[in-house]
Amino acid sequence: MAAQAPAPLTAARLAALVKEHARELGFETTGITDLRAVPHADALDRWLDAGLAGTMAYMHRQADRRKNPASIRPGTTRAVVVTRNYFLPDPAADRVRGTGRVAKYARGPDYHVTLRQPLDRLATFIRSLGNADTIAVAYVDAGPLPERELAQRAGLGWIGKNTMLLDPDRGSYFFIGTVLTSLGLAIDPPFEADRCGSCTRCLDACPTDAFVEPRVLDATRCISYLTIEYRGTIPQELGKSMGDWVFGCDVCQDVCPWNAKFARASTDPVLALDGSMARLDLDEMRTIDDDTFDHRFGSTPLERPGAIGMRRNATVASANQG
């Protein structure tokens, strides 16, 4: 008598296997959701129409796909969302004259590169669970993916008043990665609670008053936008409020009680975080030539503004230190 073929795996079992493999690859949390249209599409339209995206023209080009995640990769029906902790405590001396601060996520190799391999391996594993036509494509903070929205729908946390995804057990210092797939995985319930409560520390602490209201960020006033995405001369009024930040800003995360209580230092060898990048010498950065910059920082997130942007940022920070 011929042996019977094994019964196909259930959606719940497939999801469990994916989550187990994600843990083996070093991701701390994993959630799964569907790709239905986002419920707050009108909020994105209002944000764009108000000019709050600044010079980030790609946000306008990607708007339709951000509102309809299923259109990003036709044929996919699920998003597997994973997170990876990047928190490193700041040096004991919070301010050191003659140096400029770098946001925590940028202290090391470019995460777009370091997370690519483990995410691609997760995508490969997901394809192995399906048939020959199964789609599984990895994304790391790239393209039109509404990552935080999908992560909240996948049960990984809520979107705080500072627009960051907050995990009640770990705070907000983590990268988000996503695999879009056609594999029929069981989905997780969304994280529906808003645990910010009446707290407004993130809004009150913003040096440039970049929050129009809770969960609405005016990017044109945000230090991260000004030091990374913006290519022009930083307006004097905003420059004076930037303090000693030369790349990004962590203020609205640093003051968050959830981070103060739950953020733990990462020892992830894949991310290869480097605490020495927390502060950069301003005199050196103001005068660094393109070749030297590319050699030292070409494989880090600082490559985004490039040497010319970092020279500008260091000049502003130097002026703020007198």
Descriptive keywords:
322 residues; alpha+beta; 11 strands; three-stranded mixed beta sheet; four-stranded antiparallel beta sheet
Q: What does this protein structure show overall?
A:
The protein is built from 15 helices and 11 strands. The chain has 322 residues and is of the alpha+beta class. It has a 4-stranded antiparallel β-sheet, with helices on both faces. The chain has a 3-stranded mixed β-sheet with strand order 10-3-11. The protein has a two-stranded antiparallel ribbon with strand order 5-6. The longest helix is centred in the last third of the chain and has 15 residues, at 306-320. The protein is globular. The protein starts with 10 loop residues before the first helix and ends with a helix. The model has no long low-confidence stretch (mean pLDDT 96).
